[in-house]
Specification:
single chain, alpha+beta, 3 helices, 6 strands, 33% helix
Length: 96
């Protein structure tokens, strides 16, 4: 299924919404399996937890506290990929 988001066309594959990467964008973490041509916009709870290397319950605590953004589609909840990257970046700087 294809989804149009503004000027780009996104694709939903196996519960992950992918968008074309722009020139000069870095690739996603190796724990998240995506092609080199796409970057996920939304991840399932399980995939997001795996990408961060934390348990599902830890990830749930993060999105319930508002530290990580999520969206819902009916009863399905997805984690915003960009919010994972921001969370890691914020905590990486705090540890230095």
């Amino acid at each position: 299924m294809s989804v149009s988001t503004g000027n780009t066309k996104s694709i939903l594959i196996d519960g992950v919404l992918y968008a074309p990467m722009g020139a000069g964008e870095s690739q996603s973490p190796s724990d998240v399996s995506v092609s080199t041509e796409a970057q996920p916009l939304l991840l399932t709870i399980a995939r997001a937890a795996k990408a961060l290397g934390v348990s599902v319950s830890t990830l749930q605590a993060l999105y319930l506290s508002g530290e990580i953004e999520s969206v819902t589609f009916g009863r399905a909840r997805r984690i915003v990929y960009a919010s994972l990257a921001r969370w890691v970046d914020e905590h990486k700087r705090g540890a230095a």
